[in-house]
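Hi C.,

You asked whether I'd gotten around to modeling the 437-residue construct. I have! Everything is below, sequence then structure, no commentary in between.
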Amino acid sequence: MERYRRDWARDRSAGRPLAVVRPAGTRDVQAVLRWAAAARVPVVPRGAGTGLSGGATAVDGGLVLSLERMRAVAVDPVARVAVAQPGALNADVKRAAAAAGLWYPPDPSSFESCSIGGNAATNAGGLCCVKYGVTADYVLGLEVVLADGAAVRLGGPRLKDAAGLSLTKLFVGSEGILGVITELTLRLLPAPPPASTLVATFPTVEAAAAAVLGITARLRPAVLELMDRTAVNAVEDHAAMGLDRTAGALLLARSDAPGRAAAEEIAAMEAACAGQAATEIFTTDDPAEGEAFAAARRLAFPALERRGELLLEDVGVALPDLPRLVGGIEAIAAAHDVTIALVAHAGDGNTHPVIVYDGDDPAHAARAERAFAAVMDLALALGGTITGEHGVGRLKRPWLPEYLGDGALALTRRVKQALDPLGILNPGAMLPTEGTR
């Protein structure tokens, strides 16, 4: 059971579960939750274990409910929907959609290994989210098993549906504390045209952030990603992708606009980058070349993991505050004498500061924890969010009360109490114990 105790966040507080249960379908999940409710045993739902905030951390004496065996995917090309079980990988859904000439846009960097149920539980985004939105924008319907074992169907394959409360949206991003998702109905889009790509390097990360503002003021690129020097060099050490090691920051932008509009968008992006003293600007219409740069961006997390243990942030701000956020993160790294690599879905203000530290050095680990807290506090001070797409989990739980405020936190607790009165669903995730920060 050891490999089921933690997700990718490597939460050191992980408990030892009573058992790991791997259901094959909704009825199995119902049976598990009925037993757990009767026995007052906690249940931690788990997808593929790629979560980055400790949302699937096991608890002592509880069950880990792994949905990895539930992987069926079916596509209706006329309705333009996919019906998927939660254990299906994001890549499985993409492949099934592509076989029908369609496209499922949400694309976390771990799309080849993360589950679609986990994506829904955390409302995951990805590289395309700046133009195409996040998981919640594509979930049309759900089947959910509640804490008492009752199965409920919500929504369906309709593009418009205003009947009743939006309960489907309530469960997207709920991190397993309200129910267990056992089926998803997902909206699909026509496949976009091949994308054109721009890569620009800058002397500083602040200059790159300013270029982001210049680009987004005029258009919505299909992709707009940022990597700082530390992230670029980690990727180069890992895979030798040919990136400029001397650059202070790198921007990756793409346009999938039809026809001549793509060239016009790339030209506008090029002008915005030149206006912020970009040291080099490269453009290409070759999809393979463009995908190579996207692959380099996706390698950032595994490349950084080779350098030490990681604490991953997921903070976001309104776009005008992006330069202040990235500059503040650099100052925090210097003040706490830790390495913080920055990668970002820059086009929507969602940054991933990655703190790299030596877990065997208690003093270094303590500085990393303080730096983590300082980044969270900085995001809140700028009116930002503590998570843009990874979820609160357990790592960011102490900051949720300050982010929500007393009224919204109390309302969240009332919803939790109504749907899970025994408190057996993913205890410790998202919501802090009452009376604590």
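If it helps when you're writing up: The mean pLDDT is 96.

Thanks,
B.
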